Amino acid sequence: MAQMGRPRTFDRDHAVEQALHLFWQHGYDATSLAQLKARLGGGISAPSFYAAFGSKEALFDECVQRYLATFAQVTECLWDESLPPRQAIETALRQSARMQCEDGHPKGCMVSLGVMSAPSPENARVVDALTQSRAHTRAGIFACVERGVSAGQLPGNIHAPAMATVFDSFLQGISILARDNTPYEIIDAAITQILLTWDNAATTVLPTDRNDEKGLIDSTSE
């Protein structure tokens, strides 16, 4: 009787990375169990898949958490108060654009593209973490705008939610540009243009805005 070969070693961590790329490229619903079984570890059986990951939904959740802990960190600088607010927004935009355009993984942002490839109603819960991540980034941009107003770098009468939405909308749009293979250099140049929104608003700062900030600093130093 022929001797059976040694069972192939299954690298679970690498398999999660492979699954992440599939979900990133196609979305939750469009990524089939057949695709996952064929791709992961060079091909695994259904029993092996369920033994390793529990379910497609559980694997997706794990992939999302890995994405948020790695690729999505490019925008966490929005919460870094050691950076001037305009610089924090610029850094987030440029880092995100660079990540979304680089080779080695699907183009675009999994967090943003999750909207375009939204799952069916019965599976809507699976993208909750992506929705929360977008809200977190949006809040970070808004916090930067508010810091700009408090620092006297933006006028006190500016509509902060609208200003934040300008940058957030641009950030979400980078995903479509990257997915369509728009060159990074063009997106980077567009970031320079969108930042003029901040710069133009800054030119309308009144002396009273700066005086208010000076008074705040003086009062906190007493």
UniProtKB/TrEMBL annotation:
PROSITE patterns on file: HTH_TETR_2 (PS50977)
Residues within the DNA-binding region(s): 34-53
Name the UniProt record assigns to this protein: TetR family transcriptional regulator
InterPro entries: Homeodomain-like_sf, HTH_TetR, Tet_transcr_reg_TetR-rel_C_sf
Domain HTH tetR-type: 9-71
Keywords: DNA-binding, Transcription, Transcription regulation
GO molecular function: DNA binding
